Amino acid sequence: MTTCGVRIAGTGSAVPDRRLTNDDLAQMVDTSDEWIRKRTGISERRVVDRESGEGQFTLACTAMQRALDDAQMRADELDLIINATVSAEMTCPSNACRIGAHIGAGTAGAFDLVAACCGYVYAINLADSLIRSGRHRAVGIIGCDAMSTLLDYDDRSVSILFGDAAGAAVLVADDDPDRGCLHQVMEADGNGWESLYIPRKEADVAEGAVGEHIKLGCLRMDGKGVYRFAVGKFQKVIEEALQHTGLAVDDIAQFICHQSNVRIIESAKEKIGLPDEKVYINIDRYGNSSAGSVGLCFDELRRAGKVVEGDRVIFVAFGGGMTWSSSVWKV
Fold first, then answer.
1. I need a surface site. Which of 93, 132, 214, 325 has the fewest CB within 10 A?
2. Among 131, 163, 123, 147, residue whose Cα is nearest residue 317
3. Of 75, 134, 132, which is closest to residue 106 (Cα–Cα)?
4. Does 125 qualify as catalytic in the annotation?
5. Three-state DSSP class for 176?
6. Nearest to 314 by CA among 230, 244, 254
7. Measuring CA to CA, which residue among 140, 184, 185 is closest to residue 166?
8. Helices 262-272 and 33-40, interaxial angle, to 10°?
9. Catalytic residue (choose from 125, 218, 258, 297)
10. How many CA atoms does the CB half-sphere of 28 hold within 13 Å?
């Protein structure tokens, strides 16, 4: 085991140009701008233009290239690419392999990681561990989902929530062993899989599923169940991260949280006592972009100067699986 640290050398993000507003959705399903804002905090979300070839692959490529540009590195300097997503166009080959070829990463290892909304945090945790082991020196990670490709827009329970986005980062070995991930958690409970899943065939549909029509290949969600799970896990993983590291809320520059629902985030803030300025929220503009949300938030925070070298941040996410993850970093 080496004694190196890990430095986040660069970040990048990407969102489609096309905006889908609440008023747009009100033309497609029984809802309204007021109804959506009140329950989710979302005003609009970005969606890919599938007819022009946009999708998970294109968003991920753009975000990864922007992270490399930010790090002032070439793609062929990467040892490994991890693409976290549930919406890759194909399972074979992995989109990570195609991304590597597109950006010119040579023979860098590459694989897709499926952890739903936890994808970015799982990926950054894994990359830190691989670098600290001495097996890799530079890892590119991407959290990206084109959720609009997996939605039944006649289903109000999911169509109002999700959007498309990508966040990427380049991680490299650093001489300072105290730099990088200070604490991490990656956990799951598969007993709750029926709360959030994408059935591909009739046999995949959860027993007792309700609804007049179940569209295969589209996301299904038990909204109340996910809400209860998320509120509890959000608070627990943040409190455990602070306790394990001995850090206080005042020691953390930003709590970078998965953008699932503004009510879930506000509940955690209130229960833990997190100040508004330390909990970034962009769900109003992008909706829930699954694996893309945490990386998108992180990139926007860095570019706005709200996270700088030496700061401590906490990444928090939860998602289908059910999965949950946290990561405390000295950046």
1. 93
2. 123
3. 75
4. no
5. coil
6. 254
7. 140
8. 30
9. 258
10. 16
The catalytic position among 117, 144, 181, 257 is 117
**Residue 118 catalytic?**
no
> Residue 170: which residues within 8 A CB-CB, separation 6 or more?
8, 9, 10, 11, 67, 68, 70, 71, 73, 78, 138, 139, 140
Distance, CA of 74 to chain centre = 24
Strand partners, 17: none
Q: Where along the chain do its domains lie?
A: 5-177, 181-330
Q: In the CATH hierarchy, which fold is given to the domain comprising 181-330?
A: Peroxisomal Thiolase; Chain A, domain 1 (3.40.47)
288 is catalytic: yes
Phi-psi region at 45: left, alpha or beta (left = phi > 0; alpha = psi -120 to 50): beta
pLDDT in tens, 161-218: 999 999 999 999 999 999 999 999 999 999 999 999 999 998 999 887 765 578 899 9
What token pair was written down for 61?
Answer: 């490529």
| Same fold flag, 5-177 and 181-330 | yes
| Number of DSSP helices (H) and strands (E) in the chain, helices first | 10, 13
Q: What's this model's pTM, rounded to 2 decimal places? A: 0.95
Backbone phi, psi, residue 108, to 5°: -55, 140
User: For residue 87, which of 126, 109, 113, 111 has the smallest C-alpha distance?
Assistant: 113
Please name the residue that has the structure tokens 């899943």.
197
Strands 196-197 and 220-221: antiparallel
Q: How many CB atoms lie within 10 A of CB 145?
A: 30
Question: What phi, psi does 151 have (nearest 5°)?
Answer: -105, 145
Alpha-carbon span 204 to 206, nearest angstrom: 6
Please determine, looking at this structure, whether the domain spanning 5-177 carries the CATH number 3.40.47.10: yes
Two structure tokens written together for 225: 């169940």
Q: What is the pLDDT of residues 235-280, one digit of tens each?
A: 999 999 999 999 999 999 999 999 999 999 999 899 999 999 999 9
